[in-house]
Amino acid sequence: MRRREGFTLVEMLVVIIIITIITGATVMLAAAFLRDAGVRQGAMIVVQGVSEAKQKAAATRRVHFLVLSAKEQEGWLEIHEDTNSDGVYQGDQDPRTEDSDKMIVEGRISLPQFVHFERAPACISFQPSGYLTPYNSGGGLDINVQASSFDKIMNDEKPVPVGEIILGYINNVQPYKVCMDLDRAAGKVRRHFFLSVEK
User: Fold this and answer.
1) CA angle 147, 143, 58 (to 5 degrees)
2) How many other C-beta atoms are found inside a 10 Å radius of the C-beta of residue 46?
3) Is the CB of residue 107 less than 8 Å from the CB of residue 76?
4) What is the Rg, in whole angstroms, of the alpha carbon atoms belonging to the chain?
5) Handedness of CA 11, 17, 20, 24 (dihedral sign)
6) From CA 60, how far away is CA 70, in angstroms rounded?
7) Pairing of the two strands 132-135 and 165-169
8) 6 part of a folded domain
9) Nearest to 73 by CA among 40, 117, 109, 32
10) Overall domain count for the chain
11) CATH code, 48
12) Contacts of 28 (CB under 8 A, 6+ apart)
């Protein structure tokens, strides 16, 4: 009796179909993971920026400002030192190119591509004691989202984006957002919540 060598066409087709299914499933899982990675990375950049500004204010015994970009196409943040000790951030000009009494302590830190601040104060002031105060673009105090309200909304069956800082994708290319709640007395991000918003 002669022994068969090699594979039949049917066996090869079955193997190709199995490999195609496994590859497709892997690509779909990787794409789902990468879609939300940008806003998560952006949230970690903001948490790090808040922490660094607080540490610098305490170390130098001077007020520091965390300035947040309001431009949709260019999300970034910068840390400035209040060199004239008046406790007031002077405005929108870029201190690297124009006269200003504010000095950048850290260079501009960009958010990931396509990620921007959907809601954020224009700047956050950090006292040497560690206390933070968010200011809006008009110079007034920014709204304060109460921790209990934030928790209640985020734990709802269908949570909506709320918080002092909200990160999202430009032009809603992805339905993912990160909502952040600031703790003023402790000078830190109290918590942040990842949200998948249905379109």
Assistant:
1) 75
2) 25
3) no
4) 24
5) negative
6) 28
7) unpaired
8) no
9) 117
10) 1
11) 3.55.40
12) none
SS3 content of the chain, % helix, strand, coil (to 5): 30, 30, 40
> How do residues 136-182 score in pLDDT, each as one tens digit?
876 666 677 777 777 777 777 787 888 889 898 887 777 888 989 89
Phi, psi of 76 (to 5 degrees): -155, 170
Q: How many CA atoms lie within 13 A of 129 on its CB side?
A: 5
Q: What are phi and psi of 127, to 5 degrees?
A: -80, 155
- Per-position pLDDT tens, the chain of length 199: 566 676 788 888 888 898 888 888 777 766 656 667 888 899 999 999 999 999 999 999 989 999 998 777 778 998 888 877 777 776 544 444 455 444 555 678 889 888 899 888 888 999 999 999 998 876 666 677 777 777 777 777 787 888 889 898 887 777 888 989 899 999 999 888 888 876 5
- Structural domain that includes position 153: 36-196
Residue 1 lies in a domain: no
CA 60 to chain centre: 27
The answer to whether residue 18 is domain-embedded is no
- Phi and psi for 16 in degrees, rounded to 5? -65, -40
Where b means 16+ CB within 10 Å and e means fewer, 149-175 reads ebeebbeeeebebbbbbbbbbeeeebe
- What pTM value is reported for the model? 0.73
Any domain includes 111: yes
